[in-house]
Design goal:
7-stranded antiparallel β-sheet; globular; alpha+beta
């Protein structure tokens, strides 16, 4: 058993304070939920996507595509204009407080407004560029029509983002924005992702910007400066730094990569993982010993990339974490901390990030079959978790690792991409940047939007974590052929249904399983009362549930 209060943890008083705050948050959440308006009382159609505004709350929608209209959704799903961006089609045609009730002849009421608006933008960009909005200047005002015209980019191809002229235009616009001279100034998560995106385009024109970014963290003598002990920042930047080296062979950045690997060794807790930041951990955090796997994922990925790049990686640190993460694969979604999984299907991006770990690990010399099998399972998990693709880290890693499914089931990948065309078009701003809705106050939506840009470049396979051809600067490395469990346990790594699955009927759409099956850690017998016996018998044989 882990000793939660061993030397090196924060004090007991701090733990008590944390528990008090956590308990108070649970009580307040219960009070709010009890008095909230149920979504079923507003929506007239079944929920398909996780990204759907709650009628009882507010939602920062942001842009309606390249129109320049910036919006917020208020209680009752009231889509309201907040402002219009200068030099855009909407500028000067709308006022703050205007309520959007319909677009191109379709009313929003009772429907997911994100999908309706996104589909309208999709059709306009593919045809004549026309968006005709039904507007109420105030709640009690009469409806009037305001028509604007956005740029026509054409339609996404059926194999989007591959063989797609529209995708190429979008990638170029986004790369020009995220490589701007006013960007890439600070050592943080989103700038690391921007560097990954620029490298993933395959265009050498953006490589110098990535070099400039990392060189601001080097002193004249080549030593490292300005990098702290933030697990989120160090993990993502470690991945970007390694990818830059594998692309260019520029040894000047190796001291930075070495710094990230040494920091991972020094701050690892329990020999398995990492917290949010610093050297201490909150033992009660998420009831998992203070671990934060969503941050630790990228640190582990940095370590395996460090092996590929030839820097000094502490073997005990790497193998301890690799074994810890591996033992979760195939047993429900990878949890937030060292605990039982919360959800069979939803990992908030951790399955996708671990797929990237297994992608690099599968390049090890010798028998790497466990990593290859885990890679397939986790990539399929990331892609097929699309009904809950809304949280920032889900979008990041579904974008990056979901594309791996092209190797295993290209039709499934293309079908899933087509499902989200409305979202890609809705979130893309006139500037070329994307806008990722975030419930996290620390995240700037435009900065976070680079995760949607990565969905357009991931299949191009220009990054090692995306399955790029072996870099001429890569080193040979080895990893254990066996980490955990027995040979029989590898059956759980299968991404195929049980052989008897189809005896009980056709496969349900994934969003139906998400909404109807008892797939969370906490559920009651009443959760399955409405399910048919055949549905239960079939899906107990589903590869995600078995």
């Amino acid at each position: 058993m882990i000793n939660l209060f061993h030397e090196g943890h924060s004090g007991i008083n701090n733990v008590k304070k944390y528990l008090f705050v956590a308990s108070l948050a649970v009580i307040m959440h219960s009070v709010l939920v009890c008095g909230a308006v149920r979504p079923d009382d507003y929506y007239t159609e079944p929920q398909v996507y996780g990204d759907r505004p709650n009628p009882a709350g507010e939602y920062d929608l942001g842009p309606i595509g390249a129109s320049g209209i910036m919006t917020r959704i208020y209680k009752g799903v009231v889509v309201t204009v907040e402002e219009t961006q200068p030099n855009t089609p909407a500028h000067g045609k709308f006022n703050k407080g205007d309520i959007i009730v319909g677009v191109n002849g379709e009313l929003l009421k009772g429907k997911n407004p994100l999908v309706v608006l996104g589909m309208a933008v999709t059709k306009a960009e593919a045809t004549d560029g026309v968006l005709a909005f039904d507007i109420k200047p105030g709640k009690d005002s009469a409806v009037k029509k305001v028509t604007i015209k956005i740029p026509v980019l054409g339609a996404y191809s059926k194999t989007f983002p591959l063989n797609c002229a529209k995708s190429k235009k979008i990638i170029k616009q986004a790369a020009q924005f995220y490589s701007g001279k006013d960007r890439l100034k600070s050592h943080d998560l989103h700038n690391a992702l921007a560097c990954l995106f620029l490298l993933s385009t395959g265009d050498d024109a953006y490589v110098p910007r990535v070099k400039e970014y990392f060189h601001q963290f080097l002193n004249a003598d080549g030593s490292v400066k300005g990098i702290g002990d933030h697990s989120w920042y160090n993990g993502y930047n470690g991945v970007a730094c390694a990818e830059y080296y594998l692309r260019t062979g520029d040894k000047s950045v190796l001291p930075i990569l070495q710094h990230y690997c040494d920091d991972a060794r020094d701050r690892q807790a329990y020999g398995i993982g990492w917290g949010h930041w610093g050297y201490g951990v909150w033992p009660a955090y998420e009831a998992g010993g203070g671990m934060m796997h969503a941050a630790g994922n990228q640190i582990l990925l940095t370590l395996v990339l460090g092996k590929m790049c030839g820097v000094d990686v502490d073997e005990k640190t790497l193998v301890g974490a690799l074994k810890h993460w591996y033992r979760f694969v195939g047993h429900g979604a990878i949890p937030i901390a060292d605990q039982r999984y919360w959800h069979i299907f939803r990992s908030a991006g951790r399955d996708g990030a671990t797929a990237a770990v297994m992608q690099i690990a599968s390049c090890a010399k010798g028998d790497a079959s466990i990593y290859k099998q885990a890679h397939e399972y986790l990539s399929m998990s990331a892609l097929t978790s699309w009904p809950e693709r809304q949280y920032n880290f889900e979008v990041i890693w579904h974008s990056i690792s979901g594309a791996n499914v092209l190797e295993y089931d290209p039709d499934l990948y293309y079908k899933t991409q087509q499902r989200f065309i409305w979202n890609f078009n809705l979130r893309r701003q006139a500037s070329g940047a994307f806008y990722a809705h975030s419930d996290h106050p620390s995240m700037n939506p435009t900065d976070a939007g680079v995760s949607l840009a990565l969905a357009h470049t991931a299949p191009l396979k220009n990054l090692a974590i995306q399955g790029a051809p072996r870099s001429k600067y890569a080193r040979d490395f080895t990893l254990p052929a066996h980490l955990w469990g027995t040979e029989a346990d590898r059956a759980f790594l299968s991404a195929k249904h049980n052989k008897d699955f189809y005896k009980y009927g056709k496969e349900d759409e994934m969003h139906i399983l998400f909404r109807q099956l008892p797939i969370r850690l906490q559920y009651s017998p009443g959760d399955v009362k409405g399910l048919s016996l055949n549905m239960m018998l079939r899906n107990v044989r589903h590869w995600r549930c078995a």
